Amino acid sequence: MHVSKVLNNNVLISQDANQREVVVMGRGIGFQMKVGMEIDANKIEKVFTLASSDDDALDARYHELLEEIPLELLAATEQIVELAQQTLSGDLHPSVRISLADHIHFAIERLRTGQVVKNAMLWEIKHLYPAEFDVGLQAIRLLKNASGVTFAEDEAAFIALHLVNAQLNEDMNNTISVTNLIRDIVQMIKYNLALELDEEGVEFRRLVTHLKFFAHRLIHQSTISDDDDSLFRSVRDKYPLAFSCVEKISLYISKKFKHAMTSEEMMFLTIHVERVRRSQKPSAEA
Questions:
Q1: Where is the PRD domain (predicted)?
Q2: Where are any strands of DSSP class E within 130-255?
């Protein structure tokens, strides 16, 4: 493995056997190194592929971050990404390394100067994305070991939102819109069916996963439809309580987003609502 670019004493850019650009990290690995020189394998602590984000500005920003961020923090960021990849379902967009490293770098600098930022969406993230939030909690422990900075749960939620964003491959503003929409629909289900939702339950998590991708399609005006309404009618007639709730959700979406839910969308949501309804106990207020 040979040097393609020296970023600093601890970080080099090289190429793997498939000619893909990789980041090579290690204490003092870049000291007195020049382009073309062979990298000392004994000094390598971490190697990962620097996948292109298809955005030259983002790629340039990541090179800047690699130059600016201390080795311990780069290693911690990579640990967080690896943890998320091992723990969460679905793929993370490669650009998550850029957005997460940038965010963490800024968050630590901000906290060191006494700027404490509260996460206004802490409750939603904590309850709607428990797996991502759990990774966020582990992440702030890794960051404490790497930087000595102690973060509150608010930062775990910020990190979790970046991971959700990477799963959806979204703009962060859209991810926030998706989260707010999920929150509103969950609240409508809860109050229309008078349920005390078990947020740790399997069916609730399946519902949230369904809503996450439904909201993603809605924001991008990409719908699913089927010309055969026979299954829709069967579900509608079989689960009248759940369907009545979905009708109210459909009306809300029509008013707020100017989108008429298709019969296919209503059918799938009805099935998920019915599964949640059957798995829950009625609320004390019912």
A1: 68-173, 174-283
A2: 195-196
